[in-house]
Amino acid sequence: MSMFENDQYRWRETYFVLFSSADAPTVTKLQQILQTLNDRFVLTNVRADSDGHAESLTVLAPDDFAALDICYVDGEEVREQVSLLYDDLKPTVSEAAERHRLEQMKQYDARFDVLHFEQLTDMGDGDEADEMLDPSALLLVLDTLVKLTGGIAVDPQAGAML
Question: In a 3-state reduction of DSSP, which class is residue 24?
Fold first, then answer.
């Protein structure tokens, strides 16, 4: 079940972690690493393909009033999107290290979509609490996925590498 189907959560933004499909982790490895990040994370909706590679999972981060749907995508769709992202990002990249990362990106054919959701909280009078969402879980998971896959995190809405 996607967090879109849960009326206790509202979608906020989507990030990508781009990488080579040859570096796609198994669902077991992904679960092990994510569970060690924070003992309060709850992993649900874990799905793997027939080879044991991660297809999707949800990370609930109650302390951060957040949830993350993580979905694996590969193939032509990703290659086309990488080409578009490359064209968008190229004019904004000035440092040598960033240019190197950008050039690496052209080789990627897989991605994790990381959909960030905010947990809605009712303050008892029908109002929702403002500013309860903490981006810590999102940043921690993005960083971990980048290290695990050797890839690059991208904020497609801002047109920026993270």
Answer: coil
DSSP characters for 58-90?
Answer: EEEEGGGTEEEEEEEEESHHHHHHHHHHHHHHG
Are 147 and 120 contacting, i.e. CB atoms less than 8 angstroms apart?
Answer: no
> In whole angstroms, what is the distance from residue 68 CA to residue 116 CA?
5
pLDDT, tens only, 65-101: 999 999 999 999 999 999 999 998 888 888 888 888 8
- pTM of the shown model: 0.89
End-to-end CA distance of the chain: 28
* 82 phi, psi to nearest 5 deg: -60, -40
Q: Are 48 and 26 in contact (CB under 8 A)?
A: yes
**What letter does residue 124 receive in the DSSP assignment?**
S
Residue 45, phi-psi category: left (phi > 0), alpha (psi -120 to 50), beta (remainder): left
Using an 8 Å Cβ cutoff, are 114 and 156 in contact?
Answer: no
Q: With the C-alpha atoms ordered 69, 148, 142, 59, is the resulting torsion angle positive or negative?
A: positive
